[in-house]
Design goal:
Elements (H helix, E strand, L loop, with lengths): L7 E6 L5 H13 L3 E6 L1 H6 L2 H8 L10 H4 L4 H7 L2 E7 L1 H8 L6 H8 L4 E5 L3 H5 L1 H12 L3 E2 L3 E4 L5 E5 L3 H9 L10 E6 L4 E2 L5 E2 L6 H12 L3 E6 L11 E4 L3 H10 L6 E4 L6 E3 L18 E3 L3 H7 L5 E8 L3 H11 L4 E6 L10 E8 L2 E9 H16 L9
Parallel strand pairs: 1-2, 1-3, 3-4, 4-5, 8-11, 8-13, 11-12, 13-16, 16-17
Antiparallel strand pairs: 6-7, 9-10, 14-15, 17-18, 18-19
The structure holds cytidine-5'-triphosphate.
């Protein structure tokens, strides 16, 4: 239900395959506390049904300008006045051309002429259509008139081509529309590792561990909610990565290391929550190993220490590691904090089936000159508390804390 105090967003849906991503955008706008009304072009309604957007926005969806029944409710001028912001995602080449020409030949273009609200477009089209001089000229003209743009991005396209023209991700559109947010990590870039790694012995066997990835995933969601732009590099996890977080899958320690390295640029905070295998088999058999001997030995070699590598870089982000200990939790964790040169370490007691692979956890968090105990609680609550503490420490919060 609309309360009248939330930001009112009019979302226009043009006729492009990227319209499916706008379903997620509606959800995220509503999660961010916006009231959303959706207007679709006829072509847009051919890609995703109005009923889908009606269910997601909780409001009737309009397509036609001359719809007597709809006009007797909130007419198009009232709708244009209602909006605090207009966002069109996807904005097709045709829609951009009609907006640039000032046409009012359907409800969406009419609303764009009739509104005084700022307009944001998320262009989405085939690469050649995007690069066409006509589209580029319309793009420039709309920008000159004060229309803001988000994207398009480069990459693989639904039409099979690769290049510029892909619609910006919902998270990026949200960011462009609402700004970086007001949380304690607003405007910060965060990279988190999560889950186990699997080090292959042969095509069907691997060395792994019991990590579910829950803590890392909860931290990614908490960092996102704190306003950060989050990338989650994860092993084979048993929970879904959170929406609004860029997820990068990696299965071995080495591939996780490579994924971290290639996503480290501009990162302000690195949290290593993954249970990375410390050793991998020296060789991986091409064929499935047969049990023809009574005994078998697998020779193991060390994997790269991702956390230590990131901590050794200069410049480097704020670096938070995890420690899993069964004895002398505090002593071992503080030694690890110093040895790896971390800004903070969160120590888990993993004795007797605690912490790993479960939904609850307790943490002893240490940093140079301070520590804090977090009693046992659900991992998502724990993650929020830890992110808050990290944000305080990153912004030069109290240097000693021993509660
Ligand atoms: N870690 C990592 N890469 C590795 C191994 C560990 O990034 N190859 C990170 C984990 O994500 C976690 C921390 O390092 O944040 C845990 O280190 P751990 O393996 O417990 O500590 P070690 O220093 O290797 O000590 P030990 O295994 O002897 O307890």
């Amino acid at each position: 239900m609309e309360t009248g105090t939330e930001l009112k967003v009019l979302l226009g849906i043009g006729g492009g395959i990227a319209a499916y991503k706008s379903c997620e955008l509606v959800r995220r706008l509503r999660e961010a506390g916006c009231a959303v009304r959706v207007v679709m072009t006829r072509a847009g309604a051919a890609f995703v049904t109005p009923l889908t957007f009606q269910a997601l926005s909780g409001q009737p969806v309009r397509v036609d300008l001359l719809d007597a029944e709809a006009e007797s409710g909130m007419d198009h001028i009232a709708l244009a006045r209602w909006a605090d912001r207009v966002v069109i995602a996807p904005a097709t080449a045709d829609l951009m051309a009609r907006l640039a020409a000032g046409l009012a030949d359907d409800l969406l273009t009419t609303l764009c002429l009739a509104t005084e609200a700022p307009i944001l477009l998320a262009p989405a089209m085939n690469r050649v259509m995007w690069e066409h001089p006509a589209t580029q000229a319309n793009h420039r003209l709309l920008q000159q008139r004060g229309v803001r743009m988000v994207g398009p991005e480069s990459g693989g396209q639904a039409c099979g081509e690769t290049g510029a023209g892909r619609m910006a991700e919902p998270q990026a559109i949200l960011h462009a529309l609402l700004g970086p947010g007001s949380g304690p990590l607003a405007g910060r870039r965060v990279l988190i590792t999560a889950g186990p790694t699997q080090e292959p012995i042969d095509p069907v066997r691997f060395i792994g561990n019991r990590s579910s990835g829950r803590m890392g995933v909860a931290l990614a969601a908490a960092a996102r909610d704190a306003g950060a732009e989050v990338c989650l590099v994860h092993g084979p996890i048993s929970v879904a990565p959170p929406v609004g977080v860029r997820a990068v899958a990696a299965d071995t320690a080495e591939s996780m290391h490579a994924a971290v390295r290639s996503n480290l640029d501009g990162v302000d905070l690195f949290v290593a929550a993954a249970a990375v295998a410390d050793y991998r088999p020296r060789t991986t058999a091409d064929q499935k190993l047969k049990k023809d001997a009574a005994e078998m030995a697998v020779e193991l070699v060390r994997t790269p220490d991702i956390l230590a590598d990131v901590a050794a870089r200069r410049p480097r982000p704020f670096v938070v590691g995890f420690a899993a200990e069964t004895t002398d939790l505090r002593g071992h964790a503080r030694a690890k904090l110093e040895r790896k040169g971390l800004d903070m370490i969160a120590a888990n007691d993993v004795s007797a089936g605690k912490a790993i692979g479960t939904a609850r956890n307790a943490l002893t968090v240490l940093w140079p000159g301070g520590e804090r105990l977090f009693p046992e609680q659900p991992k998502d609550e724990l993650a929020r508390a830890l992110i808050e503490l990290i944000a305080t420490r990153m912004s030069g919060g109290p240097t000693t804390d021993t509660n």
